[in-house]
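Here is the promised in-class demo. Please do not try to memorize the tokens; focus on the logic of going from shape to residues.
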């Protein structure tokens, strides 16, 4: 989406002519980011059931939900986030490096420091 069109849509939304949800949807159409919902229950990833597979060059948002607080770490990209129940946490990855990268917990609840592999991010060459 061109900068002029994006600017026009933002101005239109700011004037309350178009509901903000429609502005976000229009802007998102030009957003190449892929969103993957990842759900943790009982300290295990239940969705998706297999490794997360993307292609080199993709921009991916891993949207985490968990039934208990947990710190998550994507090794190889050195990204960390904290997920809490009732509040999705976003981990945005620009998939530049190819390979298989573990996503681990660095503690469950408050104050513990376990180091468990939950799933993998697999980045395939373009």
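The designed amino acids, position by position:
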């Amino acid at each position: 989406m061109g900068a002029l069109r994006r600017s026009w849509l933002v101005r239109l939304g700011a004037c309350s002519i178009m509901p903000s949800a429609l502005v976000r949807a229009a802007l998102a159409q030009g957003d190449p980011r892929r969103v993957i919902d990842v759900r943790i229950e009982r300290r295990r990833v239940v969705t998706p059931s297999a490794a997360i597979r993307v292609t080199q060059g993709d921009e991916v948002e891993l949207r985490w939900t968990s039934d208990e607080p947990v710190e998550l770490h994507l090794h190889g990209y050195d990204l960390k986030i904290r997920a809490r129940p009732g509040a999705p946490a976003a981990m945005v990855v620009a998939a530049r490096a190819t390979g298989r990268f573990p996503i681990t917990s660095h503690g469950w609840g408050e104050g513990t420091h376990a180091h468990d592999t939950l799933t993998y991010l697999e980045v395939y060459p373009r």
